[in-house]
Write a structure and sequence with these properties.
The complex is a heterodimer of chains A (about 120) and B (about 200).
Chain A lengths: L1 H13 L1 E10 L6 H4 L9 H8 L4 E5 L2 E17 L3 E17 L5 E7 L5
Antiparallel strand pairs in A: 1-3, 2-3, 3-4, 4-5
Chain B lengths: L2 H17 E10 L17 H8 L4 E5 L2 E19 L9 E19 L4 E20 L30 H5 L30
Antiparallel strand pairs in B: 1-3, 2-3, 3-4, 4-5
The chains are: A alpha+beta (about 120), B alpha+beta (about 200).
């Protein structure tokens, strides 16, 4: 009985849990209300930059260009029981991509905002 | 059992518990692709059709005949079991075993200069990606599992820092596959090959 209490006490005292979050990238400014104002053929690159700010990456696609906005969020949690430890990290990518023709007019766009489960 | 023996047994068991450990890591990177998305990629489709179905690509780059987009999902599991005296303050003697598994999927879609889908490729995998064991009596310096290259951030975050890296990488920046102008590259691609061969890693 004493041994059991001793082991239980040690396990209880030395056990731990952890939770953390890591965020990288630009602020998520591409909510649906903002994107509703954009229409291919009319919206210009200047319009997008003015509304969403500087992108994570500007990519040259031959005579076209892409504004890529990315917000990366990692959520982790861990259980530390000394003998057995378990960590789980879930990384999600909120992103928006806008493709412009050589006249800086929007041709395609798409966005995704991860809904927390 | 005498109280002294009980204490000795307790201390021994505590030490055993403290020097032995099993650790599991699980990393989920992104979300799985919609079911059967790869089979719906029909030649001649417009980018908007693909973007509606899959959302924004995680990787994008120009190519000689147009541009390519890629979507991916990764699940990386790392299991390790070890005995180490590190918890007692002694950086000597460790016995380790580790194993890593990788599951995921990758879809790449190419568009021509007329904005029409010209080809696509899809792969799905669930593999053991490495592992090892070690007995290190004096100094513990070797990791038995290395998955760091699979957990790197997307290249979009490096925008602006391309020319601040080590010299071989900077000199190779016009050819780097993560610059968005010379193709895309999957996670875990061995370094020092193809467009990265000049980086001498």
């Amino acid at each position: 009985m004493t041994r059991f209490i001793l082991i239980a006490t040690i396990t209880l005292l030395l056990g731990a849990c952890a939770q953390y979050e890591n965020q990288r990238g630009v602020d998520v400014t591409w909510d649906p209300a903002v994107l509703k104002t954009m229409s291919p053929g009319q919206t210009t690159r200047e319009d997008v930059l003015r509304q969403l700010g500087p992108p994570s990456q500007l990519i040259a696609l031959n005579d076209e260009s892409v504004l890529y906005y990315l917000y990366e969020r990692s959520k982790g949690n861990g259980l530390l029981l000394l003998v057995y430890n378990r960590f789980q990290v879930d990384t999600q990518y909120d992103r928006a991509v806008f493709i412009f023709d050589k006249n800086d007019r929007l041709t395609e766009y798409s966005s995704k905002i991860h809904e927390p489960s | 059992m005498s109280p002294v023996k009980t204490i000795i047994h307790g201390v021994c068991m505590s030490l055993l518990v403290m020097v032995t450990g099993c650790t599991q890591w699980q990393y989920d990177l992104g979300t799985t692709l919609p079911a059967n998305s790869h089979s719906a990629m029909t030649r001649g489709a417009l980018p908007s059709d693909v973007l509606i179905q899959l959302g924004p690509p995680l990787r994008i780059s120009s190519s000689e005949l147009g541009y390519v987009m890629a979507w991916e999902y990764w699940r990386v599991n790392e299991d390790s079991l070890g005995i180490s005296l590190g918890v007692l303050g002694a950086d000597i003697f460790s016995v380790d075993w580790g194993n890593a598994k990788v599951a995921g999927e990758f879809l790449i879609v190419a568009f021509d200069n007329e904005h029409r889908l010209s080809g696509s490729g899809y792969a799905q995998w669930d593999n053991r990606s490495g592992g090892g064991s070690a007995i290190q009596p004096f100094v513990g310096i070797a990791d038995v599992v290395d998955i760091n290259d699979l957990l790197q951030q997307l290249p979009q975050h490096e925008w602006g820092g391309t020319l601040l890296g080590p010299l071989p990488r900077v000199l190779n920046s016009p050819s780097r596959p993560d610059s968005g102008s010379t193709g895309v590259q999957q996670r875990g691609t061995p370094t020092g090959v193809g467009q990265g061969s000049l980086e001498m890693q």
